[in-house]
Amino acid sequence: MTAKLHWETEGQGSDLVLIHGWGMNGAVWQALMPLLTPHFRVHRVDLPGYGHSRDLGARSLEEMAHLLLENSPASATWLGWSLGGLVAKQAALLAPTRVRQLVTVASSPRFAAEDTWRGIQPKVLRDFQRQLSEDFQLTVERFMALQAMGSATARQDIKQLKQAVFSRPQPCPQALASGLDVLAEVDLRDQLGQITQPWLRLYGRLDGLVPVKVASALDGLAPQSERQVFAAASHAPFISHPDDFVRAVRAFVGEG
Prior knowledge:
By secondary structure, the chain is an alpha/beta fold. It has helices spanning 33-36, 61-71, 83-94, 122-132, 136-148, 154-165, 173-185, 212-221, 237-240, 242-255, and strands at 6-11, 14-19, 40-46, 76-81, 99-105, 199-204, 226-230.
């Protein structure tokens, strides 16, 4: 039997695809569902190798995007968080008629720091790679702590992330390793000008993984997009500020 991506669909309205980040799964969106489903037909996916899609593999960003496109709505707004934002951008480049609108959350076209480009220090990513083989749960928990750092609700944010992640099967170790490779190596900066869909970029001002200076840099690299920064949020604004987050998404999709 061929493994398939795990999708969950609920709600009424225009189609909205939600894509989680590294080490996570589709359960991270659970608390948002009551705020989204009255307005959208929401499609949550577990990325290849994660959660209930654990038995499905994808070794590259392009493979992940293609697998999602195989079973996603014919036309939808794609919303991707962190690594999921890279997947959404890749899908928008591959299938512009399928990705009607694009929302990226705490995401960067180049996650690793490089020269004057702000991002995650390569040593941090290498350390996560090494730690994965020693203790999966501790490594993911450390990553969660990094994502919540700076948020006034950090303790609650981490608790919510942990409950979501560990409510589903653990990710495949190979998927985690491949995901770290994507974060370390992928660079879509030169392709951003090819994204023609309406595009909203959402950031947390206190984010240590995708520094707010990245938002300013993308104003020049993707002038066709618009951005919004949540002043008191870190890497997971949809968890720390759900009402503000959904308000921003609804305003953007309604205007699109």
